[in-house]
Write a structure and sequence with these properties.
Length: 688
């Protein structure tokens, strides 16, 4: 790629292009890291060496004392409002192999994609789900031998994460971390800190006890197991359970499970401890989603029970009085952030009694990871979980929502640190009591995902949601996002969303600069799937590591460990042309406010839309979101009569001669036709 004549490399090195245009993502990932770093040096100079230097990856150094060259591009911001306009790309490190792969993939992204969200980076738990973290140790599977070869002092996954963050920063990107309010149900976190979670006793497929005091039995059982098995380290077992759980957490975890580097030894001891707890029927209460949130039982269908390789039974759990979106995440346990009413006899939460030590624990650990990775923003996992029956209270303090509290605590040292919320912006009361945006504003989210990516472009649902999001964007503190594709929607169930309309999705995301967007890795070359294909071709199935020989989640099983990139060269070339064209436009419209000339039609009677910029209108963008019909002629209103619209770009590749120059007829500028799913850009010029 760095050789003379390789498409895109010379322009990138010279600064003529903000990305390496031409090579597909899989081509970039196949490059040796030495070549990638050489290309970065040709473009950026000595700052690349600084990003990898011992000084820049010294985890004992406060972030504000790091060399300025590796600080966040947003480090001069006094708040996190910048996230309201960010174009974000989600990257599951498993799909690119390791941290070196993140840097290689970033080379293929134009500067318009200014933020990179890394899916969870900790050691995973059950079925190795990234979102069911087993502990606070970073996932050593993301360790890169290439990074260590390039800089031998990068000899730990923690330092490599910092080096990756540094490189993304010098490339002009911000980097985001997942903040997750739960763990794997039998994580090292839960077993090493049982008081941070809610527990229950299960006997003969019945939950027989879920009182608040049950945690005392858990603590005693863990301590007795430890006395029998002895310490996993040189540190002796304390004489009492009280002394054990009063120890600093790192020391306690080392006694319970062993050294950080001995991952298999730690897993073996953890499994043995889980067996002991299960023998006594002691289990953390699973996490839930959707009203009523509380009150659960063992799934009465015995077919919904799995026996694992250790002979332990794992039944699913269900809500006792389920509603439309009620769901129990059986492998996960949510931190116990509040006390319980009436000793939890009726599964009722006492929101007046926040358990402050739990909040402090969660905030401190995420602050530690933010420091390691020098992260600029957070994605709040399951931000839609709001359990209060009365909705947002009159008084909102720091114990209203854990995700908002993590953000504000980190902002004490990192004022630009932002919060991107994972939500779906459904109708009122679907996921929680009240309007979701009320909850998001109260929890201090800067932007939120929404669910445009879960619709077919041009469908009634797409048009209604898009228009609603634009209205909310104009009036709410939390900005809805134009969702292009996400990792949780890239699986066989959602193939229909991406069979057509992909060009106009990205066109809209790029040219509406005051609306944030989110694009999942692999979108740019995703194949059209008319029928489900093997799971290795879906990024969603790399959130897990479920193998074919396991029957826990057979629909999620993979038979290979490597993500298979798409081969949709036609889509890739069209999106590459769009991204190259956008380079010439975005500098002019950056920071502007969009003026809708033809807004998306909430009545869904038309598929066309058009917009320009408030004030100095330099460009007009028109689209046909209908994927089946030509638009036919239509007028672009509200432009001065003395301007001409010069056609510059079409996602279809060319503009018909009749539509290349648009003049006013005294009432509007007439467009003769847009093809199905076409996006078109016009430059505004004064009539001679």
């Amino acid at each position: 790629m760095t050789a003379p004549g390789t498409p895109g490399a010379a322009d990138y090195a010279s600064g003529a292009s903000s990305f390496v245009a031409g090579p597909r993502p899989q081509d970039a990932l196949a490059l040796p890291l030495t070549e990638v770093l050489d290309l970065l040096r040709r473009r950026l100079g000595n700052v690349v060496a600084m990003a990898l230097s011992p000084e820049a990856v010294d985890l004992a150094t406060p972030l504000d004392s790091l060399p300025k060259q590796v600080r966040s591009p947003r480090h001069t911001e006094t708040d996190s409002s910048w996230l309201r306009r960010s174009n974000m790309v989600g990257v599951n490190v498993r799909t690119v192999g390791d941290y070196a792969g993140v840097v290689k993939y970033a080379l293929t992204l134009p500067e318009a994609f200014d933020s990179i969200h890394l899916l969870p980076i900790w050691e995973p738990g059950v079925v190795e789900s990234l979102y069911g973290i087993a502990g606070w140790n970073l996932n050593n599977q993301f360790y890169s031998a290439e990074l260590e070869a390039a800089a031998p002092h990068l000899d730990s996954v923690d330092k490599q994460l910092r080096a990756t963050s540094n490189l993304l920063h010098v490339m002009g990107r911000t980097i985001g971390i997942d903040v997750i309010p739960h763990t794997d149900r039998f994580s090292e976190i839960a077993l090493g800190n049982p008081d941070l979670f809610e527990w229950m006793r299960v006997r003969d497929r019945q939950i027989v006890d879920h009182s608040e005091s049950l945690v005392d039995d858990v603590i005693d059982t863990i301590f007795e197991w430890l006395r029998e098995h002895g310490s996993a380290s040189a540190v002796a077992v304390p004489k009492t359970a009280k002394k054990l759980f009063a120890m600093p957490e790192p020391d306690r975890l080392q006694i319970l499970f062993g050294d950080k580097g001995d991952i298999y030894g730690r897993i073996e001891r953890r499994v043995d401890l889980v067996k002991r707890l299960k023998w006594f029927g002691l289990e953390p209460v699973p996490a839930t989603m959707g009203v009523p949130f509380r009150g659960m039982m063992v799934d009465p269908d015995p077919a919904h029970t799995v026996v694992d390789d250790y002979g332990m039974e794992w039944p699913d759990f269900v809500i006792t009085k389920p509603e439309f979106m009620s769901r129990v995440f059986s492998p996960l346990a949510r931190f116990k952030f509040y006390g319980r009413l009436n000793d939890n006899a009726d599964w009722e939460v006492d929101f007046a009694k926040p358990r402050r030590h739990v909040w402090d624990y969660v905030c401190e650990h995420y602050a530690e990871t933010q420091h390691i990775g020098n992260f600029d923003f957070m994605r709040g996992d399951m931000s839609h979980v709001q359990m209060r029956p009365d909705g947002v209270p009159d008084v909102i303090d720091e114990y209203y929502d854990i995700l908002g509290t993590v953000k504000t605590r980190i902002q004490r040292k990192v004022p630009w640190f932002g919060y991107f919320a994972e939500t779906f912006l459904p109708a009122r009361d679907v996921f929680q009591f009240g309007e979701e945006l009320d909850h998001l504003e109260a929890s201090r989210a800067d932007s939120t995902l929404g669910d445009l990516q879960s619709t077919v472009v041009g469908s009634e649902e797409f048009l209604r949601r898009f228009r609603r999001y634009l209205d909310d964007l104009a009036n709410r503190r939390t900005a809805p996002t134009f969702g292009v594709m996400t990792a949780d929607k890239d699986d066989p169930r959602f193939d229909e969303f991406y069979r057509a309309g992909n060009e106009v999705r990205l066109f809209t995301a790029l040219f509406v600069p005051d609306m944030p967007s989110y694009t999942g890795l692999g979108f740019e070359i995703r194949d059209v799937h008319w029928e489900p294909v093997e799971n290795e071709r879906y990024t969603k199935l790399f959130v897990f590591r479920e193998h074919g020989e396991s029957n826990i989640y057979p629909s999620k099983a993979r038979h290979g460990d490597h993500f298979i990139w798409g081969e949709n060269q036609e889509l890739f070339e069209r999106l590459t042309a769009l991204r190259i064209y956008a380079e010439s436009v975005l500098g002019w419209i950056e920071g502007t406010t969009t003026r809708w000339l033809i807004p998306p039609d909430a009545t869904t009677l038309r598929g066309t839309a058009a917009w320009t910029q408030v004030g100095d209108s330099r460009y007009v963008f028109v689209v046909n979101y209908d994927l089946e019909k030509d638009s036919g002629y239509f007028g672009i209103p509200a432009l001065p009569d003395d301007v001409i619209l010069e056609g510059e770009f079409s996602t279809d590749g060319s503009i018909a001669e009749v539509d290349q120059l648009l003049t006013s007829n005294g009432f509007f500028h007439r467009v003769e036709n847009l093809a199905p799913g076409e996006g078109r850009a016009y430059r505004v010029v004064s009539a001679p």
